């Protein structure tokens, strides 16, 4: 399976039959002579230079193959199949029928595995044993603390009333809706956070806006004391786990995270009805989710960097999960609690960042920080922690073997509640792609040129568990043979396409966007037109889904895609019971049209990658983006840094930067050489007539060599020692933002040095970047010379 086989080299010889098939019909006697001459030449060449390869080549030829008609346009067939049939709604209904947290929903493991098998994939599952929590019990109560004057009064009237009194018990469940069957029942997922700590704390409480690092800093500077307080923050801006991390670091004893309607496009305050009657947020909706410290290290927190297989050595998890308890809440439930802060602590208008007042959507809360000494909260959170099994499912669409390596395409299966968007819109899309490819095989006998491996991950929601453990267990195989990873998580959470990618895949993605129509009424509009009317370019990856281990730990080019929520879309009830089949099929995607579009886009991208003889990846754009980021970051350093020279070094930072710019120039040249060669080799492969016969044999080997260079390009950016303070993240160009989690930043080493005002770190990372790029920049010269030789 993945991992154990083919560890030796994987450099399977290339299939000659593709090129030949176009020729045999036109063979003339002159050609016959040339053919013999060619065979003689090849034989000499091979015997002299390539004997070991010949042996593997022979064994390869002997393998039986399905008929392979290279003239079919696989992309067009795939788009036609998906345009004429759409089963996404059926898959959605099955996947969303009941909640399936990590490790649960074994019927869906079986369903997915069977479906893969039905679509001609060799399918299997894999179990990991991960440390994780399941909710036992929770409660949140508001206590009134009698002040001394109250107590005196009480002393007169009721001698027994000086104890704190519960004045409000918050509801921690979402309203059942008669219209939406998955919101009713006794199997609903309680409100809780993945990896939250158990605890029972009673304390005064404060409001800390989004709970970002700078929110805590701002209030700290204004004199707010967080020590032993319960800190209430709203969702948004950064990954929720980091809110809890910053709260813990600030001294808070517990955290409440609620969904503020101020961040929604459709608001009840503007006259819109809430779900299920309209597009606004249902006031009882609760966003569950993980509070792992994602940007430190994802995956099982007891096995960082190592797979959670039976018998794995486990370590203290608290570097990447919180020690203080937290609970998610709805705005309706938290409102009576927040209202008690009105007029207490620091007024939002006195906070330097003026959006504190205006970004909130609760009209009866004035967004003061508190605390109010007359009130406390009791937060009780009981979580059961254990080592539990999770299940990944895989399906291998075995290719013709004409090209080495495989493409991985995946989606997670586990969800918090109904999960129609997250992740099961992606699960439906994944099955649609598999179905369409299978139909092409059935009707034409086609097999992909490269293997395609489908993956259905478990445990993504808790902390990218299934994909991370997989990446850690099979790292050697993945680094040796995986060409790219295509991720789809929330395929449909809105109608606005969102694509983030390694820049080497941008060109391919733009081309496949052009092949998908966007508006029904106007078939002239493509996904491309819509995307680029809103975006200048394809974005960069951060974290928050299963591509993280592949790109940021292993250096495998990755893509993430999906339709996200825009201003015209109904409020997306992320991680709530209302992310349901009913919501999806009545409000967000009636007819599952966007599901279908994403299947087309993903499928077309996959085929563009699996079929071309020369891998469809380009690097000049990568270099240009990197140069832009480097210019931007270096333009932001304080002038005083320029003369900095670290101990034992000679160069100033200014000199180092200018040398690095020079190296970037050489690196840029190298990428141009690479791309030019890619295009010319692909042209030769497409037009073998244009290649003199004596070069045809060499062409195959040159394509093989070029594909190896393309396949391993991104690996260059993996720095073994990893980023400062979080060594699991090893990619020097892209990483999850240390203080944001979701949002990615380019050159994280430099970015963090700037954020922390640490010149030594800035110097260190400039040196690392220079050294890594110099390796290729030097190659550019060598290769220019060697290609001169060839010409
Ligand atoms: C897919 O299956 C083929 C045929 O069994 C095998 O050679 C190949 O190694 C498999 N690929 C992966 C990634 O498991
Ligand atoms: C995993 O695959 C095996 C073999 O096909 C099967 O017997 C087993 O039931 C599968 N596991 C689950 C959880 O479905
Ligand atoms: C105080 O004690 C009296 C008599 O035991 C009881 O009726 C009353 O409910 C108590 N009040 C409070 C606020 O606990
Ligand atoms: C939480 O702690 C308080 C004492 O601080 C105790 O009275 C209460 O019973 C505890 N709650 C639970 C559910 O254990
Ligand atoms: C959590 O619940 C379990 C099972 O009901 C109970 O045994 C345990 O004492 C509870 N833990 C806390 C911290 O209250
Ligand atoms: C990059 O290529 C340009 C144009 O060919 C050339 O002028 C420049 O010197 C090259 N840079 C490096 C560092 O090789
Ligand atoms: Zn997801």
Automatic annotation (TrEMBL):
Keywords: Carboxypeptidase, Hydrolase, Membrane, Protease, Transmembrane, Transmembrane helix
Residue span(s) of domain PA: 201-270
Domain Transferrin receptor-like dimerisation: 700-778
Location of the Peptidase M28 domain: 392-582
InterPro entries from the UniProt entry: PA_dom_sf (IPR046450), PA_domain (IPR003137), Peptidase_M28 (IPR007484), Peptidase_M28B (IPR039373), TFR-like_dimer_dom (IPR007365), TFR-like_dimer_dom_sf (IPR036757)
Single GO molecular function: carboxypeptidase activity
Source superkingdom: Eukaryota
Span list, region Disordered: 294-317
Residue spans crossing the bilayer: 36-61
Pfam family, one: PA
Family statement drawn from the similarity comment of this UniProt entry: Belongs to the peptidase M28 family. M28B subfamily.
Protein name: Putative glutamate carboxypeptidase
Taxonomic lineage of the native organism: Eukaryota, Fungi, Dikarya, Ascomycota, Saccharomycotina
């Amino acid at each position: 399976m993945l991992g154990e086989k083919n560890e030796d080299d994987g450099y399977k010889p290339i299939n000659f039959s593709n090129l030949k098939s176009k020729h045999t019909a036109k063979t003339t006697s002159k050609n016959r002579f040339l053919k013999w001459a060619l065979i003689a030449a090849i034989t000499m060449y091979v015997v002299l230079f390539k004997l070991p390869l010949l042996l593997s080549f022979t064994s390869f030829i002997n393998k039986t193959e399905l008929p392979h008609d290279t003239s079919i346009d696989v992309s067009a067939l795939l788009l036609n199949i998906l345009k004429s049939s759409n089963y996404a709604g059926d898959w959605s209904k099955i996947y969303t029928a009941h909640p399936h947290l990590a490790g649960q929903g074994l019927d869906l493991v079986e369903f997915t595995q069977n479906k893969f098998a039905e679509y001609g994939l060799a399918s299997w599952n894999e179990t990991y044993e991960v440390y994780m929590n399941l909710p036992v019990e929770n409660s949140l109560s508001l206590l009134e603390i009698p002040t001394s004057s109250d107590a005196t009064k009480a002393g007169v009237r009721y001698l027994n009333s000086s104890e704190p009194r519960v004045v409000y018990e918050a509801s921690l469940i979402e309203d059942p809706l008669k219209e939406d069957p998955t919101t009713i029942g006794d199997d609903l997922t309680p409100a809780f956070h993945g990896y939250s700590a158990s605890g029972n704390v009673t304390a005064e409480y404060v409001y800390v806006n989004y709970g970002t690092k700078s929110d805590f800093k701002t209030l700290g500077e204004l004199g707010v004391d967080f020590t032993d307080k319960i800190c209430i923050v709203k969702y948004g801006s950064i990954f929720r786990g980091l809110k809890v991390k910053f709260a813990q670091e600030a001294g808070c004893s517990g955290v409440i995270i609620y969904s503020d309607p101020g961040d929604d496009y459709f608001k009840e305050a503007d006259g819109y009805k809430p779900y299920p009657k309209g597009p606004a947020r249902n006031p009882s909706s609760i966003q569950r989710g993980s509070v792992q410290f994602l940007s430190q290290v994802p995956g099982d927190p007891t096995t960082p960097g190592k797979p959670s297989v039976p018998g794995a050595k486990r370590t203290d998890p608290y570097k990447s999960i919180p020690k203080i308890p937290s609970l998610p809440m709805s705005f309706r439930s938290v409102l009576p609690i927040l209202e008690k802060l009105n007029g207490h602590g620091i007024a939002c208008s006195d906070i330097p960042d003026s959006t504190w007042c205006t970004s909130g959507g609760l009209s009866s809360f004035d967004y003061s920080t508190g605390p109010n000494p007359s009130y406390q909260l009791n937060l009780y959170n009981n979580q059961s922690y254990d080592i539990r099994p999770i299940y990944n499912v895989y399906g291998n669409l075995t290719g013709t073997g004409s090209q080495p390596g495989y493409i991985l395409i995946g989606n997670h299966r586990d969800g918090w509640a109904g999960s129609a968007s997250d992740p099961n819109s992606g699960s439906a899309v994944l099955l649609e792609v598999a179905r369409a490819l299978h139909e092409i095989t059935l009707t034409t006998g086609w097999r992909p040129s490269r293997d395609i491996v489908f993956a259905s991950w478990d445990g993504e929601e808790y902390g990218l568990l299934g994909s991370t453990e997989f990446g850690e267990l099979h790292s050697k195989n993945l680094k040796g043979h995986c060409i790219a990873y295509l991720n789809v998580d929330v395929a449909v959470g809105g109608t606005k396409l969102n694509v983030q990618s390694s820049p080497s895949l941008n060109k391919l993605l733009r081309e496949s966007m052009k092949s998908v129509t966007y508006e029904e009424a106007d078939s002239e509009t493509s996904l491309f037109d819509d995307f680029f009317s809103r975006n200048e370019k394809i974005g960069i990856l951060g974290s928050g889904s299963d591509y993280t281990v592949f790109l940021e730990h292993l250096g495998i080019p990755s893509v993430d895609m999906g339709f996200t929520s825009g201003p015209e879309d109904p409020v997306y009830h992320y991680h709530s019971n209302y992310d349901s089949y009913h919501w999806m099929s009545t409000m967000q995607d009636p007819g599952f049209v966007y599901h279908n579009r994403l299947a087309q886009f993903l499928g077309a991208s996959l085929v563009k990658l699996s079929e071309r003889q020369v891998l469809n990846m380009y690097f000049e754009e990568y270099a240009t983006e990197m140069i832009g980021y480097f210019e931007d970051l270096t333009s932001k350093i304080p002038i005083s840094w320029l003369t900095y020279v670290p101990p034992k070094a000679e160069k100033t930072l200014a000199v180092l930067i200018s040398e690095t710019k020079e190296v970037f120039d050489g690196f840029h040249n190298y990428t141009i050489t690479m791309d030019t060669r890619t295009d010319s080799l692909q042209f030769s492969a497409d037009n073998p007539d244009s290649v003199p016969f004596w070069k045809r044999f060499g062409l195959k080997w040159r394509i093989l060599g070029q594909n190896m260079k393309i396949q391993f390009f991104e690996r260059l950016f993996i720095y073994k020692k990893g980023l400062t303070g979080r060594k699991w993240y090893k990619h020097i160009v892209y990483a999850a933002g240390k203080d944001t989690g979701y949002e990615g930043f380019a050159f994280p080493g430099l970015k963090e040095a700037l954020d922390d005002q640490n010149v030594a770190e800035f110097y260190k990372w400039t040196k690392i970047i220079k050294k890594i790029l110099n390796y290729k920049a030097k190659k550019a010269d060598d290769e220019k010379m060697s290609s001169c030789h060839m010409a």
